[in-house]
From TrEMBL, chain A:
GO terms for cellular component: plasma membrane. Belongs to the binding-protein-dependent transport system permease family. Pfam families: BPD_transp_1. The keyword Transmembrane helix applies. It is found in: Cell membrane. This is Carbohydrate ABC transporter permease. The chain crosses the membrane at residues 29-51, 90-114, 126-150, 162-182, 203-228, 262-282.
UniProtKB/TrEMBL annotation, chain B:
InterPro entries: ABC_transporter_permease (IPR051393), MetI-like (IPR000515), MetI-like_sf (IPR035906). It comes from Glycomyces luteolus. This is Sugar ABC transporter permease. Its main location: membrane. PROSITE patterns: ABC_TM1. GO terms for biological process: transmembrane transport. Signal peptide: none annotated. PANTHER family: ABC TRANSPORTER PERMEASE PROTEIN, ABC TRANSPORTER PERMEASE PROTEIN YESP-RELATED. One of its GO terms (cellular component) is plasma membrane. It is found in: Cell membrane.
TrEMBL record, chain C:
This is Extracellular solute-binding protein. InterPro entries: Bact_solute-bd_prot1, SBP. Keywords: Signal. PROSITE patterns: PROKAR_LIPOPROTEIN. Residues 1-24 form the signal peptide. The keyword Signal applies.
Amino acid sequence: MTDTLAPALVRSAPPGKPRRRAPGNVRCIVKHAVLILCALVMLYPILWMIVSSLRPEDVIFRDPSLILRDLETGNYAEGWGAFADPFSHYLINSTIVVAGAIIGNLVACSMAAYAFARLEFSGKRLWFGIMLVTIMLPVHVIIVPQYVLFSQFGWVNTFLPLILPKFLATDAFFVFLMVQFIRGIPRELDEAARIDGAGHPRIFAQIILPLMVPALATTAIFTFIWTWNDFFSQLIYLTDPDMYTVPLALRAFVDTQAGTNWGATLAMSVVSLLPVFLLFLFGQRFLLRGIATTGGK
Amino acid sequence: MSATTELRALRGRGVTGKPENKAAFLFLLPWFLGLFVITLGPMAASLFLSFTDYNLLQPARFSGLDNFTRVLGDERLHQSLKVTFTYVLVSVPLQLALALGLALLLDRGLRGLAFYRSAFYLPSLIGGSVAIAVLWRTVFGADGLFNQGLALIGIDGPGWISEPGTALGTLIVLNVWTFGSPMVIFLAGLRQIPRMYYEAASVDGASRSRQFRSVTLPLLTPIIFFNLVLQIIHAFQSFTQAFVVSSGTGGPADSTLFYSLYLYQRGFGAFDMGYASALAWLLLLIIGAFTAINFWASKYWVFYDD
Amino acid sequence: MQRRLILRGAGASAAALTAGSSLTACGTGGGGEMELSDEPVELRLTWWGSDTRAELTEQAIAAFEAEHANITVKGEFKDWSGYWDALATTTAADDSPDVLQMDEQYLASYGSRGALLDLGTAGEFLSTDGIEPSVLETGRLDGVQYAMPIGVAVLSCVVNQDLFDQYGVSLPDGNTWTWDDYAALAASLTEASGGAINGSGLSGSDNGSIRYWSRLHGGELFGEDSKVVLDPQTLAAQWEYWLDMIASGACESAAQMVEGMNAGIGGDGMSTGKIAMGFLFNTQITAMREASGANMQLVKMPGSGEVDANYFKPSMYWSVSSQSEHPAEAALFVDFLVNSTAAADIIGTERGIPSNTAALEHITADLAESDRLAVEYMNSVTPGPPAVVTPKGGSELEPILRRNAQQVYFGEAEPLAAAESFVEELQGEIDAAK
C-alpha cells in the first residue's frame, strides 16, 4: 500500500451526500486549476528548452515561443557525437559517481544522525556545532588545500575524491536532515524495542531506518541531483576526458569567443535531465512511505 | 483539551540513561574519520591562509591581519554584502512559503499528485547547469517571454536580466522557482507525522483547520526549522546561479555580485587566495551568527517529539 | 586526544600546501640538461575551447604520436572559466599539465611567478625562426620567452551586409572613415530600419577597443615597469562617444549589450541580426558567419586611415609548465603544433591565423571563404608598434574595465570619475601582485 487517502479528507466528504459533495468538487477543481496554472508557468522554460533543442541553431535565440516550425533532430546526433567519446560515456561516468555518492551518504549520514539524535555522549553539542560549521565554509577556499591532500593520496583523475568522502559523512547537510527526522519519530518505539533487549545496532536497523524512509529517499534524491549537476569538484578532480562526467561535457560545449553550439548544448541538457526526472518520478513514491503507511497503529 | 496537550501526554518520558559513549563513537566513526582526515585539514589550511598573502603559484607569505583590515575599505565587498543580504532576506521566506504551501496542497487527497510533484520539482533538477543561462535570458531578456506578456497589456518592459536595477530580482525569482528541494523535505516531513495524532484529534472533534494548527504545524516545526537554517546557509553561499546567468561577472555593474562570487573572483581570477580565505572565514562568522540566532529562537517555536 | 588530532590534520595539510608551492617556485623543469628520453613518455596537454577544437586537437595529437612512437599525449579540454580554475589549482598543488594553452591576460601572472618554462632553454627542440619577431615578442616577458604565439588576430569592424542591403545603406570606405562617420552611418541604419535594428553594437568595455582608441590618440594602455599609462581623459572621451551613441539610438542600449555579452557569439545582437556593425577580432568572423547565417564582411577600424593604431594580438599561446618532468618532449610537441605543416593541415585557423608564416602560406590555398576574408583583412592592416603585454596582476583587466564601463553606460557614474577609478583599480591590482 503505497498511496493513502487521508482519513480526514475521506471523513469530510462522506459518500451519499451529494449536497456536501458539490462544494468539495468545486474546491477540487479550483485546486487543480491553480496547480495546472502554476505547473505551466513553472515548466514553460523547460518546455522551451525541449522545443528549442529541436530547432535549427539560428532560430533558437529568436523564438521564445513553444511552436515548432521546422523539426531539427540533428542537434541530438551532433551533441551525442561531439567529443571523442559518445555522450553515453559521460552519462555512465556520472552514473558511477552518483551511485557511489548515494550509497555513501545513505550509510554514513544515517549512522551519524542516529548518534546525534538518539544517543547521549560527551561533547554532543560541541560535535553537533562543529558539524554545522563544516557546512558553512564556501567550497572555493577549501578546494585548493583539499586538492593538495587528495593528490598526495594519488586520487586525482579517479572517482575517489568524489565518492569516498561521502562514505565518511562529509555531506553534513544530510546528517542534519536525518537528525531532524529521527527526532520526529516517537521515542516509545525504541523504548519498546529496548525493553525487548535490542541494542543500538538493532534499534537503528530495525526500528529507525524503516521509519525514516522518507528522509532516506530525500537524501538519495538530493545526492543524485547535486552530484549529477556538481561542476566545480568534478572539474578539478577529473582531468582525463575519458573520466569526464555530464556537467563537464556540457560546459565544454560553451565557448563565448568562438561560438557555442547551443542546439547541441540544449539537446544534451535535455538528455541529461531525463534520467534525473525519471528517478524522481520513481523515487518520490518512497517519500510517501512515512509512519502513515508503515507503522501507524 | 487541545490536541497538542494530548500529544504531549502521548509522549514518552524519555530515557534518562547514562552517556552511551562507546555506541556513539561507533556510530560516529565514519563521520569522525571524514572530519579529521578530509574536512578539518583543508579548513585549517584555509584559516591559516587567511593570514597570508597567497597567490596560488608562489609560497604563502604571512601577512598578519592585513587581509582582515582590508575588508573595511573594500567597497566591492560592501556591495556584495548588500546584494547577498537582500537576496537572503527576500528569497528565503518567499521560497519557503511557496514550498510549504505547495507541499500541503500536494500531500494527499488529489488525483495526479505524482505528476504535480514531479512537475514542480523539475526546475530544481536543472540546478546550475549551463542551460539555466539560456532559459533565464529567454524569459527575462529584453525580447523575452516576460516582456512579451507585458506587451499584451501595453507595458514596454526593460531588459530585466541586464538592468542593474532588476538583475538581482531575476535571480531571486530563479531561486524561488527552484523551490523543489525544500518542498520535497516538507513532503517527507508531512508523511512522517503519525496518523494516530490525527485520529486522536478527530476523536476530539477538531476541525481540519484546527488539526492543521494543533497537529500538522507543531509536528512539522522541526522540518520547517531545518529548511530555514539550511536555506539561509545556502542563500548566503549562493554562487552557481549568479555565476551561470552573469557569465561569472556578477554584473551588470556588480548588481548581482554575490559574496561567494566575489570571493571566487578574488581567489581564482585575481590570484588573491589569501584574501579570499579571509573572506570565507568572515562569511562563516556571518552564517554562524545567523544559525546561532536561529537555534536560540528555535527553543520558542520548534516542537520535538523526544 | 581529539584535539591533538585536529592540530595534526591541520599541520599536515598546511605543510603540504607550502611544500607544493615552494616546489612550484624553484623547480624550473629539471635544470639545465634537457634531452629527449628513449623511455615511454606521457605528456598532458590542456586547453579551453569548444567541441570543434577538441576534435581537431585530438587529430593533431594522433599525428604527433605517429611521428614519435615513445610519446603519448593526453588531451584535457575545459571551458574558459573552468580552465583557469583548474589550472590554478593543479599548479598550486604542483600537478600542472605539461603543455598549456595560454592567454595574453594570464601570461605574466603565470610566467613571472615561475610557473612557466623558459622556452629559450629548449631551443634545441623548439624553433622560433618561422615566426615574425614582432609577433614572437608578444610571448616574451623581461626578455624571457615564456610562450609561443599560436595564432594572431587583429581588431576589425564587422558589418552585416545583409542588413545594409535590406535598408538600402551602402558599406563604408574603411580606408578613410572616422569615428564621426561611424556614428552617422550607425544612426542612418537605425533610422532606415525604423528602429527595428540598431546601427551599431555598444563598445568600449573590452580591452581591445580601449587599447585601439587610446593608441589612436597617441596613448597606450600599459607602459614600461608595469604601469597603467592610459590617460583617463582619453577613456572618458571614448565612453562619452558611446553615451551619445546610446542616446541617439545609433547603438544598442547598455542592457542589450550586457545581454549579448553574457550570451556570447550566437546569442548576441550581431548574431541575431539586431545590430548591423560591431567590433570583433578578425578571426571571429568565421564563428559570426556561422552563428548568424548572414553575409558578414570585415571593414577597417574607423580612424585607421590616419593613424596605424591597430596591433597584432596573439589569439593564444602554447606554454610549457615549469613543473613538467618532460620539458624536452613538451617543447618538441609545441614545435610540432606551431611549426609543422602536418599540424597546420589539421588545425587550420581554428586557433587563429597561424603565427608561423610558412604554416600560414601552406594552408592559404585551401582556406574557406571566411578564413580567407580574415587573412586578407590582416594583410591589409598596417600595425603600429606591438602592444605591451598585460603585466602580472592584470588578469582582472577585463572585469574591472567591464564594471566601470557598465556603471557609466547605466548612468551610475560619470565618465571621467569612472575612468580614473579604472586606472587606479587596475594599477592597484598590479602593484599588489609585485
